[in-house]
Design goal:
Strand 6 and strand 7 form a beta hairpin. Strands 5-4-1-8-9-10-11-12-13 form a nine-stranded mixed β-sheet, with helices on both faces. Strands 3-2-6-7 form a four-stranded mixed β-sheet. The relative contact order is 0.16. Helix content is about 35%, strand content about 25%. The chain is globular, with a radius of gyration of 19 Å. It has about 325 residues and is an alpha/beta fold.
């Protein structure tokens, strides 16, 4: 086990997850899965013909982060936008299934609910179809979200920003959010970023890019530990954040904190079937660790365990405390 935290301490931390409450702010997505099999190629074009045998709708994006928090036993709430449409109603129904408050979810009439349709055959994704509008939302919708945050932020122990570049998370929104938060007690602010949007993430507690995103955001190709450290330091300096957690697939994770050496965490994944939503699992687990007072290293170690489990599942998946406990043993 990584020296940042022992197995016994991990078990003690997992037992405390249910006492934490995390606010998730970001791009709400409806994940639509079509499952089937392929036995022939279309005569109309060189593409496989998928015989669909079942389909399902699941919480995606920021809503999947919320779903991961609930799977880990925490009570959480969601802020974001949906369309005034049938898919928006479906998202509200799925949120009701978690018994999660929807007061921070704002309907906008002139944009559709973001929906990603994935066609999967024989456990492999064949194609993905996106329905979305990526423009900044109306000012009125933003003000409703800020008003909700201002009224309820004192109920939470940490805040997650889940940025899928669909329009809500912008420099304007983040400036409004930081002004709002300044009037309340300090909370860990954890961001799942998108490249090209660094101006949105200035001064946050920690960001969690994957390896490619870290390369794109820093402008440094990562090919060894020296370049990894250089990319991480450049990002920390540019963003003025307290910590940076880079998820690196089969290479595990790398954590850099101010005035600390690079802390690498080897992967624990046994098999990788699907990385869909793995970043949501990482940021949810990391936020819960920070919410209960763990160090960045300890929280990242537990997040690495959770990620190693979720990539062994197909589709938008979550991890439970029980699964992490079993992985430890």
């Amino acid at each position: 086990m990584n020296p940042a935290i022992s197995s016994t301490e991990i078990l003690q931390a997992l037992a405390r997850f249910s006492s934490a409450k995390v606010l998730v702010i970001g791009d709400i997505i409806l994940d639509h899965f079509l499952w089937g099999s392929v036995s022939r190629i279309s005569p109309e074009a060189p593409v496989p013909v998928v015989n669909v045998t079942r389909e399902n709708l699941m919480l995606g994006g920021a809503a999947n982060v919320l779903n991961n928090l609930y799977a880990l036993g925490a009570k959480s709430s969601l802020c974001g936008l949906i369309g005034d449409d049938a898919m928006g109603d479906e998202l509200l129904r799925l949120l009701d299934g978690l018994s999660s408050s929807t007061d921070g979810v704002v309907k906008v009439g002139d944009r559709p609910t973001t929906k990603k349709t994935r066609v999967i055959a024989h456990h492999q994704q064949v194609v993905r179809v996106d329905r979305e509008v990526r423009l900044e939302p109306p000012a009125e919708a933003v003000e409703r979200i800020i008003a909700y945050i201002d009224a309820h932020v004192d109920d939470f122990d940490a805040i997650i920003i889940s940025d899928y570049a669909k329009g809500l998370i912008s420099p304007t929104f983040m400036a409004r959010l930081k002004t709002c938060l300044a009037a309340h007690r300090p909370l860990p602010l954890i961001v799942d970023p998108k490249p090209g949007r660094s101006q949105c993430y200035q001064g946050v507690s920690v960001i969690t890019p994957n390896n490619l995103e870290a390369e794109q955001m820093s402008g440094i190709a990562i090919h060894d530990e020296a370049s990894l450290l250089a990319a991480a330091r450049r990002l920390m300096d540019e963003l003025d954040c307290r910590a940076l957690l880079i998820t690196r697939g089969e290479h595990g994770m790398a954590l850099l904190e101010r005035d600390q050496p690079l802390f690498t965490i080897p992967t624990v994944a046994k098999e990788v079937f699907d990385v869909t939503g793995a970043g949501d699992t990482v940021i949810a687990t990391l936020a819960l660790g920070l919410a209960i007072g763990l160090s960045y290293g300890a929280a990242a170690t537990i997040a690495n365990l959770a990620a190693g489990i979720v990539v062994g599942k197909v589709g938008t998946a979550t991890v439970s405390v029980t699964e992490i406990e079993e992985a430890l043993s």
